[in-house]
Amino acid sequence: MEIISMRQAEDFLDQEVIVKAWITNKRSSGKIAFLQLRDGQVYFQGIVLKNEVGEEVFELVKTLGQESSVELQGIVQADDRSNLGYELLIKSIKIIGESHEYPITPKEHGTDFLMDHRHLWLRSSKQHAIMQVRNEIIRATYQFFNDRSFIKIDPPILTGSAPEGTTELFHTKYFDEDAYLSQSGQLYMEAAAMAFGNVFSFGPTFRAEKSKTRRHLIEFWMMEPEMAYTDHEASLKVQEEYVAFLVRSVIDNCRLALETLERDINQLEKYCQLPYPRIEYTDAVKLLQDNGFDDIEWGEDFGSPHETFIANQNDQPVFIINWPKSIKPFYMKINPDNPETVLCADMIAPEGYGEIIGGSQRIDDYQTLAENIHKYGLDPEVYAWYLDLRQYGSVPHSGFGLGLERAVAWIAGIEHIREASPFPRLLNRLYP
Ligand code: 4AD
Ligand code: MG
Questions:
Q1: 302: CA distance to ligand 1 center in Å?
Q2: Residues with beta carbon inside 6 Å of ligand 1?
Q3: Nearest residue CA, atom 29 of ligand 1?
């Protein structure tokens, strides 16, 4: 007899199979018991009939606690009422591991309680659905970049440099030296682009940001493509094609997960349409001022109300392009049409999810970069290798970073970014 996941139910219709599962809930009346089950891949219903399994097993089933693990033998049946479309008519049950007084019950729990039990909370159907979306975004990322002959390069996590400014660094000792956990692999990806043309990374990054918002994690994963012989315009095209591809892939491959999350597919479909609108930073400031935001001046960074207002002008992600150089990192190339600004863009997701991508064209000229390293007060010794890239066959190049958990939160349509990470690192939370 085959051991299957109920995900494969369609291929085993009316056949007797073995399924290894956990009980999430149950109810019984008289001669019939309904078990809500999960086998890790899908959630499904199992039916136990007293006259099929016998009095003894039937009584035993009634005593099984939530999250007991069981090996089931039964027949796969069609069931139109469930999302899955199939259920299991159980013939026999073997108890693998008992579970008593499982802390997370079907009633409502507070967020702190759930976060303290994150190791168990992950088993719930909503968390399962979110992780499916996350997994699909990762899978689609590899597909998108592999299809375009980008090679995956892994930048280091322990570094001496700070691409995105020195205020949010996690400091650690590296034997006798000072080191930091990587904020971004970008600088290394630039070296890789000069070696391999088109590259991308996907790995953990760290920001010691003392912010407690629904968009910030201390540890998050970032996709960072970097492209040689590519100007910012061409990079923007890659960015929108990439994001549209992610949304498309989730729609096509995560049907059950999106149903569980009650995500409106029609809304997601709109995000597959290209191109995405663009607005110059300068025009965005005017738009905000004209609409009663008197707290914003040219030269200031946007907060989430500003981002959300601009995003709400459209039903698609929007690029805010050409930001003031004074509020952006040292490596961005000056915009020749307006030298107070740099060739960069933030992609803002709709529905208030905020910035999901930051990207720019990089300075490719030795002199300008050397001056900026000085101006920004960075240690020239630490960045000597980075400057080298401008000395030996420098070319125009651009890249960007997409925050995985921000993308997951947006596409899955969840309230808070903490649920987009299996074990989120938040301000004041290192447990579990
Ligand atoms: O805009 P950021 O800081 O850009 C960079 O790090 C560039 N070096 C990327 C590059 O050009 N290669 O971060 C990029 C993205 C943001 O748009 C956001 O999606 C995500 O990373 N991000 C965060 N996600 C969760 N929590 C945080 N604290 C985040 N900070 C940035
Ligand atoms: Mg940014």
A1: 15
A2: 163-164, 184, 186, 207, 209, 216-217, 220, 222, 224, 355-360, 399-403, 405-406
A3: 216
Residue 60, Ramachandran bin (φ over 0: left; ψ between -120 and 50: alpha; else beta): alpha
pLDDT over 90 percentage in the chain: 95
And the tokens for 82? 């469930």
146 to 69, 132, 198, 225, 403: CA distances (angstroms): 39, 21, 10, 12, 19
Distance of CA 261 from the midpoint of ligand 1 (Å): 25
Nearest residue to 161 (alpha-carbon basis) of 177, 150, 138, 143: 177
Give the chain's end-to-end CA distance (angstroms, integer).
Answer: 39
* CB-based contact 234:275 (threshold 8 Å): no
Taking the C-alpha atoms of residue 94 and residue 107, their distance in angstroms, rounded to an integer, is 28
Parts of the chain belonging to CATH 2.40.50.140: 6-97
Query: Which residue bears the tokens 């018991």?
Result: 33
- Residue 318 reports pLDDT greater than 90: yes
Protein residue whose Cα sits closest to atom 6 of ligand 1: 184
pLDDT of residue 88: 98
Tell me: the pLDDT tens digits for 123-169? 999 999 999 999 999 999 999 999 999 999 999 999 998 888 888 99
DSSP designation for 103: S
Instruction: Collapse the DSSP code of 251 into the 3-class scheme (helix H, G, I; strand E, B; otherwise coil) and give the result.
Output: helix
- The superfamily in CATH containing domain 6-97 is Nucleic acid-binding proteins (2.40.50.140)
258-309 pLDDT tens trace:
999 999 999 999 999 999 999 999 999 999 999 999 999 999 999 999 999 9
> Which residue, chain included where needed, has tokens 């529905």?
351
CATH 3.30.930.10 in the chain: give the residue spans.
Answer: 118-420
Give ∠ CA 124-128-132 in degrees, rounded to 5.
Answer: 175
Question: What is each CA distance from 94 to 28, 39, 74, in whole angstroms?
Answer: 19, 14, 12
CATH architecture of 118-420: 2-Layer Sandwich (3.30)
